[in-house]
Amino acid sequence: MDLDPEGLFRDDSDEDDDNVQEREANKEMVIYLIDASPKMFTPATTAKADEKEETHFHTIVNCITQALKTQIIGRSHDEVAICFFNTKEKKNLQDLAGVYVYNVTDREPLDRPDARLIKEFSCIEDSFVNNIGSRYGITSGSRENTLYNALWVAQALLRKGSVKTVSKRILIFTNEDDPFGGLTGAVKTDMIRTTIQRARDAQDLGLSIELLPLSRPDEEFNMSLFYADLIGLEGDEIVEYLPSSGEKLEDMTNQLKKRMMKKRKVKTLSFAITNDVCIEAERSFICNDTGALLQNPEKRFQVYNDKIIKFSARELSDVKRVSSHHLRLLGFKPLDYLKDYHNLRPSTFIYPSDEQIFGSTRVFVAFHNSMRRLGRIALAFYGNPTRPQLVALVAQEEVTSAGGQIEPPGMHMIYLPYSDDVRYPEEVHLTSDVVPHATDDQIKKASNLLRRIDLKNFSVCQFANPALQRHYGILEALALGEDEMPDVKDETLPDEEGLARPGVLKAIEEFKASVYGENYDQEEAEAAAAKAGASKKRKAASDAAEQKSAAYNWAELADAGKLKDMTVVELKSYLTAHGLPVSGKKEALISRILTHLGK
Amino acid sequence: MARNKEALVLLLDVGPSMHGVLQQVENICSTLVHKKLVYNKSDEIGVVLFGTKETCNELAKELGGYNHVVVARDIKVVDEGTTNALQNLPRGTSPGDFLDAIVVGLDMLIRKFGNMKGKQRMCLITDAQHPLRDPPQGTKKDQVDTIADQMKRHEIKMDCIVFRESGVPHNAVMDENDQLLYHFRERSVTKVVQVDSPTSLLGALRTRNVLPVTVFRGDLEVSSNFKIKVWVYKKTSEEKFPTLKKYSDKAPASDKFASHEVKVDYEYKSVLEPDTVVPPDQRIKGYLYGPQVVPISSAEWEAVKFKPEKGVKLLGFTNRSNISRHYFMKDVFSFVPEPGNTKAIVAVSSLARAMSEMNKVAILRCVWRHGQGNVALGVLTPNISSVKNVTDSFYFNILPFAEDIREFQFRSFSSLPSSSQPTEEQQEAADNLVKMLDLAPPGREEILKPDFTPNPMLERFYKFLDLKSKQPDANVPPLDKCLKRITEPDPDVIDYQAPVIKKIGNAFELKENPKKKKARTQDRLTYTAADDQAKLLEEPSAEKVGIAEILFPAEEKVEIGDHNPVQDFEAMLAQRSSSTWVQKATVEMQKYITALIQDTRDGDNHQKALECLVALRKACIIEQEPKEYNGFLTKLYQKYKTADDAKFFQFLLSKNASLISKEEAPDSDVTEEMVRNFCPKPEPFSQ
């Protein structure tokens, strides 16, 4: 039914697309479908007089901008389109009323996000009313069904790419729980029926439709009125779609983030920063002895006992294959046998699957239960071909909160070190003397300190990486042509104010006095003074050198080429006097002096 | 390197009670020597055996006594002779006296090096279960004191590995010997390790000396006016597979000094002008921002990039439960108080002990070096020392930032359908298995403790390396029996617990998913059959395959195995559930055949490839897909007709596996004549 020429054209190009996608498996295409009805522009909160009122629309724009920024960094090959519905203007290929496909120049409607899109979209709010306009789409008078149109447009946009390699999703943002509430009678049932049918069709084509509902201040978003049917939820699943209150941006962004990640079960932390893409790298192997060009050499060697031992790639892979299995269970140990230093790499999460063998989920759940109840970890051998390793499997209980799942149930696979990987730095400076250990009083003082500087609600993922934030902040600014470099706040710095509270200060002072003694600061000052004495000595030495070096006319000596006749000590006197390094052979010293003289 | 040079004397007990593990002792010491030959070629090693029938040492000659101690090799730079000295250790006949051996070893070191400084170490491997000779005067303890004083004076360290088979009851002699060894630990720099299985014996000796290097030296800032001086080291660091160099055979054989190394050269060319090379000074770094490349020079970048100040700062303390174990990101660091600084030692000790008592951890922000481009956020956990002369310290684990975390939602186990929920009976069976397959049984040392578990891959590599240096065409040796304990469950335990395992095997019904293909399954079945315990091992491995699914979601599930390609192929065809299977099968088969021909050497794969080809041909006739076969064969012929593999096509003709003609399948557009002319026999390969 959608036999528009554009669509046909796209089908032709499908093959190319597929080739591309084979390389970039797990690609995603997302359509953001945003309700732009006037209801979205009413204040979301019953704001106090002094605060700026925030509308749902504003919230959504902000959080989509956030999402785009994350996406452009992490998964820039995914494609997005932004589409408003319930608009005055229309702009779409099908020329359907009330639907506006937002885009910027030099970009397909559904394409990879770029800097300009993010920039312009983030300030769309100011121009929205003038350029696109907002209105109620579905009214009793007209036969228009903007929601239906919007779904149709989205579906048409998502025609490119095959469902097998790309996951296609439509995310609907709205605060209207009953879009057809204004209608009555046959018109209403008819419209509901056709809209739901359209959604079903889309889902049958492999598109997933998701909803991010927003609640208005006066009423909760009621899923069961319409949207539960639209996205095909049943029974308990509705509860999972807890409407976000819309009061806080963070909630929404978090929710969006979780949804964005949901489909990707990849364990890699991908932050690929590549070289200039306009440049192709060509690698050739050149024989070090003869300079002859080599084909990709197959053999490798290791010098052993002054002999060269050659290995073929096959032999090496045979050596590495110590176990044929992916994961072999060896036994179980109590939880506390997993020490803090038994760690090498980020852990991997394991969740059972019945895909290949029916019943494996059941076994997994049974072991999961037993291990949790008995406080055991499982020890297994993971026969990874590049580095076969012992792993510990730690059962993770499901943790949920009002916001959804915090920790999914399953097992964490922790990679264990081998005996050769463990070092004993605490024994490096070992002497046979007994070393002092803390007394009870000191421990008490320390406990007091611990109680004072307590991060009560510390959670592991609360800090953003300042280096990365700054990196992408700069890139973003450069890409968008902004002059000012962004100021990224380093969240990882300690809370100076908190540490300066009198209670904390007192605890620190008490502890300090108990372990360091009362006069520590004074002693330190003396030690520092002693050091200063040492540096005084150094100062004196350099003064002497200066005097000595002043005895020569260096420029003249250099011109006459007489530097090489001088002694190293004399040369060094010049270097010391000018604060230059005195290391290296005589030639190095001379060349350093020449450089310094500017010759 | 010189400062890392080490002289080591191995003191090996070869007495009758050690005979069972002598093979492992040989292995571990050989690995040590192999690694020295690769990494520390100037290290020196001496070997002393005790518990031998004979006596051969300087002290015995000069003073008498010191019987049954043989110096198998004087302290010399490692070479092949060292490895030979450690092969086929003699089976001794008298109970070993380790004190005598220590004295002999000590004497060797002092004679050789005198008062020279340098790393000197002794390594004792014994079972210490026989009574020691009574000293001529004083008690044994006094003797230990004298020896320890000598060791201290010459800065000689000692590692003692005490091996005792599990199940051997402790007796008074062992206690006395242990006391003496522990006394060494108190009086000198000695480490005592107890192991009870041959596998952990292999891991007990550190086979490679890595010079510990500090990552950071400076203040741990609790607040701006309270700082603790600490040194930070790596606690764990993966010992990598040696990076082998690429070998070049271009150098003439006569050139004795050829390095045979390969230099790698990169050339950068613009996409627009693929022929011109872009010189280094015209290149500038660009970063990808979406589809856009943002160019930025390194000088500019330097000016704006994130530059945190060097230092280690405390953010605060928090409950241990707030930090799940699986968030630990990398290898582990160790914070030790500044050596010799008593105040720092006490400060670290009291904080560590308070943290451990209150079950708290500290959160730190670390910038190790000046000019480092990022910060590390991590968790500090206490490490309380149980030995008097070792200071308390901390472990430090890096935690992820918000960007590093992947939050995935998975279905809650409680909401799984009842078909995936274990019944009470099944749960009990699982509980029992978890209890029975205990790797930390009471009254024994922990089995497969990471600290005592060698890396089987490296272990095998060095063995192979040594083997190859003697016989260049040696095959990869099979995994040693002791190393197998690491990769597979202990068969003794499995035997012993057979009823429990059987029970769980019976309790759960695991069925192959008929839609998924077999290759992998077959692997597994052959494996279990080999172990001759069909039911028993299938269960755990079956479960793990399920798990592996998650880890490798993208893995191809349809493949043709190496064991029985034709059968696999036919099995695939038999899955006639949809026509796609037929296609998949033929495609897979074609891939397999191509690979076979590609990998072939001197025609060794030809027979197999032909069998496959015949099977494919037959299937294509039955399925009425002659074009598929004809096309494939023609392509294959085009590709390989010039190579050695051309013989293959002659071979093929003789087996009547040429193109499919019209007679055989009506869909074919190949005539009988074309079939005959497909591969002209006598044509010389001119192309």
UniProtKB/TrEMBL annotation, chain A:
GO cellular component: Ku70:Ku80 complex
Catalysed transformations (reactions): ATP + H2O = ADP + phosphate + H(+)
Keywords: ATP-binding, DNA damage, DNA recombination, DNA repair, DNA-binding, Helicase, Hydrolase, Nucleotide-binding, Nucleus
Name this protein carries in UniProt: ATP-dependent DNA helicase 2 subunit KU70
BP term (GO), one: response to heat
Cellular compartment(s): Nucleus
Domain of life: Eukaryota
EC numbers, comma separated: 3.6.4.12
Keyword flag DNA damage: yes
Automatic annotation (TrEMBL), chain B:
Domain Ku, first and last residues per copy: 275-416
Keywords: ATP-binding, DNA damage, DNA recombination, DNA repair, DNA-binding, Helicase, Hydrolase, Nucleotide-binding, Nucleus
Entry's localization field: Nucleus
Reactions accelerated catalytically: ATP + H2O = ADP + phosphate + H(+)
Domain of life per record: Eukaryota
Known EC number: 3.6.4.12
GO cellular component: Ku70:Ku80 complex
Gene Ontology MF term list: ATP binding; ATP hydrolysis activity; damaged DNA binding; DNA helicase activity; double-stranded DNA binding; telomeric DNA binding
Record-level GO BP terms: DNA recombination; double-strand break repair via nonhomologous end joining; telomere maintenance
Broad EC category: hydrolase
Protein family per UniProt: Belongs to the ku80 family.
Protein's job: Single-stranded DNA-dependent ATP-dependent helicase.
Name of the protein described by the UniProt record: ATP-dependent DNA helicase 2 subunit KU80
Taxonomic path: Eukaryota, Viridiplantae, Streptophyta, Embryophyta, Tracheophyta
